[in-house]
C-alpha cells in the first residue's frame, strides 16, 4: 500500500482540520444522566480528576470522556467491551470471558491479543493503578471488569498520560472513580436486575446493595456495597456436548471509611474484592473465509471448555493534608489478582505434531501481587503558578505455572506425554519522580510543562520442561531509565470556551521472553514509546445547553514491541521483540445538547488512520498495513428523556453506534481475518416513583451478529473461535433508595 504522504504533511492537514473545526462544529463530552442532572443548575459543568486535581472537564487540555455511575447502570454497561459505543477512539478485543480484554485507544495495537506484552492503556482505581504493568503478569490480557454499582464515574483519558500516570498509558488511561463516604448523610439503596439473553438457559439475576453510614457527624463515615451477578449461558458447545455452556458468576463487595481527623487532615481506607468465573467462554465457531457461523450463530466447538476463574483484592489507604498554599496527598495500595485459565489446545501446531489425533489442554495458574504508593503536592489555584510535584513507587511480583496435559483419541489422559510445562516468577520495581507546572500569563492564556523520570528493573526466572521445553533462564534487565515529558498551551476564549495544543510522550516497559531449548529468541524487549501531537477545542455553547470537544491528533509509535510467532525447527516460537514504527492520525468529535428541559441528545464521531511506517518481516506486516483493531470510522447517536409527571418521573432513552471494519492482524501476514462492522442499538424505558426506580432496558436491540474478539486461530482450515457481541438482552432493573 503506497500512501505517498509525509508525517509533516499529515500533521499540517490535521492541525488545519482542527482549526477549521474550531469555527465550524462543536463536540461534547459524553456525560451521564446522573452527571447531567447534578450539573443542570451549574450549567453543565463536569468535574474530573484527569490532572490529579478537581477541575471542569472543559478546562483540561486533553481529550476526556466521563461517564457517570448512574449512566453505566441505566445502559447496563457491565464490562469494558460495552464502552466501545460511548467512547471515541476506543476498541476492546474481548477473549470471551470476564476480566480478559485487550484495550486500545487511538489505534495503537500490534495484534488482536498482545498477551505477551504489557498494556498500552493503563487502568486506575482512584489514585492507584491496577493490573500488571508487564507481560510477566499478562497485563494486556488480564484486566479488571469492575461492576458499575457504587461507581461515581468512569473517566477515559485519550492520548499518552505518562507524565502524571507513568508506564503503560501510551494510548491513554481508564480510571474508575469510586463513591466516597459522606460524613453527614445516611443513605442506602438496594436493587436487583432480572435479564434474559436470546436463547439463554434462564434468567440472569443480579442483586446488589449499598449503604453510607455517618458514624460521627462531620468526622467519620463508612460506605459499603455488595453485588452478585449470575448469568446463564447462551452458547452451545458442540464439542463438549453442553448446552448454554458459557454460564458465569461474579460476586464481590467494597467497604471504605473516611475520617476527618482535623480541619486540615483527612484519612481514608478501602477494601475491594471481586471474583468472577465462567464455565466456558463465549465464542462462536466460524469459517476462516468470511467469519460465517459453522454450526449456528450461538454455537461453538472445542474439545475442552475454556474455563476462567479470576479473583481480585485491592486494599488502599491514604491521607490529604491542607497546607493552605497546597494539598499534600499520599496514597498506598496492595493488589492481588489470581487467574486460572483452562483452554483447548488440541489444534495448536505443537499439539498436532506430538499428539496427532489426540487432545491437548492448556492450563494456566497466574498470580500477581502489587504494592504501589504515591505522594504528591498539589498547589491551590490562587496564584499565577499551579503545580503538581510527586514521587511514585511500585513493586510487582507476577508468576505463572502452565502445563499442556495430553489425552488420546478416547479422551484418556497420557501421563508420560508432557508436551510443555512452565514455571515463572518475575519481579518488577519502578521508582519515579514527576512534576507538572502551569503558569498563567494572563486570565485567558497559560502554558504548562511536565516531566517524569523513571527507573525500573525486572528480574526473575523462567523454566520450561517437556518435549518442547527444557530451558531455564534467569532474567535481569538491570536498571533501565526512561524520561518522558509534555507541554501544552491553553487559551480561554471566554470562561466557557477553551482551545488547546499539546505534545506528550509515553512509554511501556520491555517484556521478558520465556526460554526454550528449541527457539533462538531474545531474552527481553526494550521499552517502546509514543510521541503525541494534538490540538483541540472544548467548552459550553448556546447558554450552556451544549458542551463539546473536538480534537485532532498525530501519534508516532517508535520501537514497537511486537508479538512474533515464528517456526524454528518444527516448533512454533512465540516471543516479543522490537521493530519498526507506526503512525496514527485522527479526529475525535463528541457532542451533547439539552434540546429541551426534558430531552438530551448526544453524538460522537471518530476518524482514525493507523498504519505501519515500514515493513515488519518477523510480525508479517508491510508498510501501509492498518494497525490491528483500528477502524477508520466510529460514530454513535443517543437520546435521553426525563419527564416529571404528577405521580412519577418518566425515563426513556436510546443509543445507536457504529464501528467500521477492522483487522485482527496485519493485513500482509497469514491467519489474517478482517472483521465486519459493528452496529449496536440499545434502548430503555422506566420510571421514578418516590424512592423506587424501575427500568426496562434492551441491549443489542436488533440482535446484531458481530464479533468483538477471537481466540488464537489454531485451525484456520476448519474454523476459528470468534467472540460474538452479546445477543439481544432485555433487563428489568429495580432500585430502591432509602
Q: Summary?
A:
6% of the residues lie in helices and 55% in strands.
List the total number of helices. Answer: 5
Biggest sheet overview: 22 strands, antiparallel, barrel
Could you tell me the radius of gyration in angstroms?
A: 25 Å
Proportion in β-strands: over 45%
Portion in helices: under 10%
N/C terminus separation: 62 Å
Taken together, the total number of domains comes to 1
> In total, how many beta strands?
41
Unreliable stretches covering 5 or more consecutive residues: 4-43
Instruction: Please name the CATH topology.
Output: Maltoporin, Chain A
Q: What would the average pLDDT be, to the nearest integer? A: 87
* Full CATH superfamily name: TonB-dependent receptor, beta-barrel domain
Category from helices, strands and their pairing: mainly beta
Shape descriptor reads: globular
What is the C-level CATH assignment?
Mainly Beta
CATH architecture: Beta Barrel
Characterise this structure.
The protein is globular, with a radius of gyration of 25 Å. The chain has a 22-stranded antiparallel barrel. It has a five-stranded mixed β-sheet with strand order 3-8-9-6-7. Strands 16-40-39 form a three-stranded antiparallel β-sheet, with no helix packed on it. With 738 residues, the chain is mostly beta strands. Helix content is 6%, strand content 55%. The relative contact order is 0.15. It has a single domain (7-405, 412-737), classed as TonB-dependent receptor, beta-barrel domain (Maltoporin, Chain A, Beta Barrel), CATH 2.40.170.
Amino acid at each position: 500500500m503506497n500512501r505517498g504522504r509525509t508525517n509533516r504533511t499529515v500533521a499540517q492537514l490535521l492541525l488545519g482540520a482542527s482549526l477549521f473545526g474550531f469555527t465550524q462544529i462543536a463536540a461534547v463530552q459524553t456525560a451521564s444522566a446522573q452527571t447531567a442532572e447534578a450539573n443542570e443548575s451549574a450549567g453543565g459543568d463536569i468535574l474530573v480528576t484527569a490532572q490529579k486535581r478537581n477541575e471542569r472537564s472543559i478546562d483540561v487540555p486533553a481529550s476526556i470522556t466521563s461517564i457517570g455511575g448512574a449512566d453505566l447502570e441505566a445502559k447496563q454497561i457491565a464490562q469494558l467491551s460495552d464502552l466501545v459505543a460511548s467512547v471515541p477512539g476506543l476498541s476492546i478485543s474481548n477473549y470471551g470471558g470476564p476480566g480478559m480484554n485487550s484495550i486500545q485507544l487511538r489505534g495503537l495495537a500490534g495484534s488482536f491479543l498482545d498477551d505477551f506484552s504489557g498494556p498500552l492503556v493503563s487502568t486506575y482505581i482512584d489514585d492507584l493503578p491496577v493490573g500488571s504493568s508487564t507481560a510477566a503478569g499478562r497485563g494486556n490480557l488480564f484486566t479488571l471488569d469492575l461492576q458499575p454499582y457504587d461507581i461515581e464515574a468512569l473517566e477515559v483519558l485519550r492520548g499518552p498520560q505518562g507524565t502524571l500516570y507513568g508506564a503503560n498509558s501510551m494510548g491513554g488511561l481508564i480510571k474508575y472513580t469510586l463513591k466516597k463516604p459522606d460524613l453527614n448523610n445516611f443513605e442506602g439503596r438496594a436493587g436487583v436486575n432480572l435479564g434474559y439473553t436470546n436463547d439463554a438457559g434462564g434468567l440472569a439475576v443480579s442483586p446488589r446493595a449499598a449503604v453510607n453510614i455517618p458514624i460521627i457527624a462531620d468526622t467519620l463515615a463508612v460506605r459499603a456495597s455488595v453485588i452478585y451477578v449470575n448469568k446463564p449461558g447462551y452458547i452451545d458447545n458442540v464439542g463438549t456436548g453442553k448446552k448454554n455452556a458459557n454460564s458465569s458468576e461474579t460476586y464481590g463487595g467494597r467497604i471504605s471509611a473516611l475520617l476527618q481527623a482535623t480541619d486540615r487532615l483527612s484519612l481514608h481506607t478501602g477494601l475491594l474484592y471481586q471474583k468472577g468465573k465462567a464455565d466456558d467462554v463465549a465464542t462462536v465457531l466460524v469459517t476462516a473465509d468470511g467469519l460465517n457461523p459453522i454450526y449456528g450463530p450461538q454455537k461453538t466447538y472445542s474439545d475442552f471448555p475454556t474455563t476462567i476463574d479470576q479473583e481480585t483484592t485491592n486494599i488502599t489507604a491514604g491521607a490529604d493534608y491542607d497546607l493552605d498554599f497546597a494539598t499534600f496527598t499520599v496514597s498506598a495500595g496492595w493488589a492481588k489478582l489470581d487467574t486460572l485459565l483452562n483452554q483447548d489446545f488440541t489444534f495448536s501446531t505443537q499439539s498436532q505434531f506430538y499428539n496427532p489425533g489426540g487432545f491437548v489442554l492448556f492450563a494456566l495458574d497466574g498470580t500477581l501481587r502489587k504494592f504501589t504508593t504515591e505522594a504528591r503536592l498539589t498547589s491551590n489555584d490562587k496564584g499565577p503558578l499551579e503545580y503538581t510535584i510527586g514521587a511514585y513507587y511500585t513493586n510487582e511480583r507476577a508468576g505463572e505455572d502452565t502445563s499442556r496435559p495430553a489425552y488420546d483419541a478416547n479422551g484418556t489422559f497420557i501421563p508420560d506425554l508432557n508436551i510443555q510445562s512452565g514455571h515463572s516468577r518475575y519481579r518488577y520495581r519502578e521508582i519515579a519522580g514527576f512534576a507538572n507546572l502551569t503558569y498563567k500569563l494572563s486570565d485567558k492564556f497559560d502554558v504548562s510543562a511536565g516531566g517524569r523520570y523513571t527507573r525500573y528493573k525486572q528480574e526473575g526466572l523462567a523454566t520450561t520442561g517437556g518435549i518442547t521445553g527444557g530451558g531455564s533462564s534467569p532474567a535481569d534487565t538491570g536498571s533501565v531509565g526512561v524520561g518522558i515529558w509534555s507541554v501544552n498551551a491553553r487559551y480561554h476564549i471566554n470562561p466557557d470556551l477553551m482551545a488547546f495544543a499539546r505534545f506528550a510522550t509515553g512509554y511501556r516497559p520491555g517484556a521478558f521472553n520465556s526460554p526454550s531449548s528449541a527457539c533462538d529468541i531474545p531474552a527481553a524487549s526494550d521499552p517502546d514509546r509514543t510521541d503525541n501531537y494534538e490540538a483541540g477545542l472544548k467548552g459550553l455553547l448556546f447558554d450552556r445547553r451544549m458542551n463539546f470537544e473536538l480534537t485532532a491528533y498525530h501519534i508516532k509509535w517508535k520501537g514497537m514491541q511486537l508479538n512474533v510467532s515464528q517456526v524454528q525447527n518444527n516448533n512454533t516460537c512465540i516471543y516479543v521483540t522490537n521493530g519498526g514504527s507506526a503512525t496514527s492520525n485522527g479526529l475525535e468529535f463528541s457532542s451533547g445538547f439539552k434540546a429541551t428541559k426534558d430531552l438530551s441528545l448526544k453524538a460522537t464521531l471518530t476518524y482514525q488512520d493507523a498504519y505501519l511506517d515500514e515493513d515488519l518481516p518477523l510480525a508479517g506486516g508491510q508498510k501501509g498495513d492498518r494497525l490491528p483493531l483500528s477502524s477508520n470510522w466510529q460514530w454513535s447517536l443517543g437520546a435521553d428523556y426525563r419527564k416529571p409527571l404528577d405521580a412519577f418521573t418518566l425515563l426513556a432513552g436510546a443509543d445507536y453506534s457504529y464501528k467500521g471494519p477492522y483487522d485482527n492482524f496485519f493485513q500482509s501476514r497469514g491467519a489474517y481475518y478482517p472483521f465486519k462492522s459493528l452496529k449496536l442499538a440499545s434502548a430503555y424505558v422506566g420510571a421514578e416513583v418516590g424512592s423506587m426506580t424501575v427500568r426496562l432496558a434492551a441491549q443489542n436491540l436488533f440482535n446484531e451478529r458481530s464479533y468483538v474478539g477471537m481466540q488464537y486461530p489454531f485451525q484456520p482450515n476448519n474454523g476459528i473461535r470468534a467472540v460474538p457481541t452479546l445477543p439481544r438482552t432485555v433487563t428489568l432493573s429495580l432500585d430502591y433508595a432509602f
